[in-house]
Amino acid sequence: MANITKKVSWSSRADESGAAGEGTPLLNGSEQPRHSRQVQLAWWLTVRLTAVTPEEARRCCVILDYDNIENQLFLEEERKMSYMGFRCLEISRWVVCGLIGFLTGLIACFIDIVVEQLAGIKYQVVKENIEKFTEVGGLSISLLLWAVLNSAIVMLGAIIVAFFEPIAAGSGIPQIKCYLNGIKIPRVVRLKEGPMIHSGAVVAAGVSQGRSTSLKRDFKIFEYFRRDTEKRDFVSAGAAAGVSAAFGAPVGGVLFSLEEGASFWNQMLTWRIFFASMISTFTLNFFLSIYHNKPGELSNPGLINFGRFQGDSVAYNLYEIPLFIAMGAIGGLLGALFNVLNYWLTIFRIRYVHRPCLQVMEAMLVAAVTATVSFTMIYFSNDCQPLGPEHTEEYPLQLFCADGEYNSMATAFFNTPERSIIHDVLCGILLATITPDGSIWADPGKYALIGAAAQLGGIVRMTLSLTVIMVEATGNVTYGLPIMLVLMTAKIVGDYFVEGLYDIHIKLQSVPFLHWEAPATSHWLTAREVMSSPVTCLNRIEKVGTIVDTLSNTSTNHNGFPVVVKPPKLCGLILRSQLIVLLKHKVFVELARSRLTQRKLQLKDFRDAYPRFPPIQSIHVSQDERECMMDLTEFMNATPYTVPQETSLPRVFKLFRALGLRHLVVVDDENRVVGLVTRKDLARYHLGKHGLEELQLAQT
């Protein structure tokens, strides 16, 4: 066995395990080039965007093992399990999904109630203050009060995020997409508060494992599910439950997990995810009905909804379809512009607003500016509406309106963001105002919905799941076709200029994200051009000192090792995490012979160490133990996936994407290891022509 050297660099990220500025292997056979300006920026973005320590950033792209490791221990356990045992496991999966949906719905209910109560206090105080100073003068004091209240509340949340759990910043959707795609981001499913999609995933990751690593509590249940394959399925259910609770869209939640996750689904898994989504919606509706003094009424929508379209407002004509498509194209253009501006703003923030204290100040400044803009729009608004006996406005503000009237602009701002959506009309008001006589020839709500779909689709580029989510959120399937056309048009137009918002943030973090298909012009590439070589291999019976030295080498960060027998032919594959557990339990040949009563290592020992396997530096191996031998036969995956050298890149890509692989061994005609393909090797080819030109330059 020998340490590897690098034939070509496959990643644009800075070195993952070596010292800064050194060309060191990133994964098995993946060495980084010397630092360039682009690489330094990518490394900086990785650390700052994920808000983790540099050491965590070096591990931020650890790939998850979505393929079961079929070693002898695994096969023995599966073969010993009876039919009833498998049925009990299946029932346990349904129970866990039900718990995930129930807890996610409870969290959504709690968030909704707390936000409504806090916002109600703030708006009532501001409303009374404005009414007081409208008569006596001095509305600037009301503006200052609003800005201070906004900033104080935001400051509390910003301090918690910036100083205690930075990964909770943002929507969490890019991180969850990465997790479902097979990439582990540090602390992404740790206990934290976040948007409902992220919160659902966090709940799923904790409940499905029967323990909480954040709270350091192990309930000794669901131990069979402590592996990446099972955990991924439950996190998918959690993300779907979060979407369902947020939008009241259980089917949309399932499609979101399917669209953003992996393709290796089965029918039973889909039903379990749908079950979690339905339980989440039911739980939210049930407890909100109690909160609104209507117990048992389960017609409450999700946290965010677009209102209900009834009567003539749901009708649309054939001549309007081209108008919808045009709105989708405009939404794609505006979305692309927004994404470009967001990209450069993110770069600016990373360079100049990187300290936690500056991030808190930035959030407070945005809150104060928001209050100022809101107050200004209310102050100069002349849109006064009559205040009927059955008005639904909770905080009607008269301001300069006549008695019996209220300022309708204040209705949009004196509400939580979820309720404000119902009052917003975008595009519909514009269509009404451009007519000569000011008559409304189109329903404003209808065009507001289509305009919102166009803008949202132009930014996030989601099609299938977003269509269903918006249909479910409106409670009417009539707009299914217009929404689909708008979202498809927005995606096509937007993709011509720049990627979607989530994909941009994923790329900024230099994450090896695998898309659904390989690049269209990649058939001329084979596994030989993609693979990393030569590869660090281990013998089936290897010296302990050799294993320790390989794992301890600070210039490498290998996670998978092909196992060979002499003559050097492939006989299996073993992971770094497995080797660390074997070293921790002293599974040496000599000790096994001398200790006849030594307990045989079981899969439970590996599951107890999952997912935070100890670092190799914490494993003590004496000098005498270094001379011992370790037999890997029982613990290695004896049937790893392999491909010949001439396998095309699209075929290799499909194997990784469909099976959730972490490593793919490349062998010659005599089954000798000639290279190893990892997700990081494949991810760079999504860069297209520029990436291929960079490859050719590196090869020369």
From TrEMBL:
Species, as recorded: Lates calcarifer (Barramundi)
Membrane-related topology note: Multi-pass membrane protein
Gene3D superfamilies: CBS-domain, Clc chloride channel
Protein name: Chloride channel protein
SUPFAM superfamilies: CBS-domain pair (SSF54631), Clc chloride channel (SSF81340)
Family per record: Belongs to the chloride channel (TC 2.A.49) family.
Gene Ontology MF: a single term: chloride:proton antiporter activity
Transmembrane intervals: 91-115, 136-164, 234-257, 269-291, 321-345, 357-380
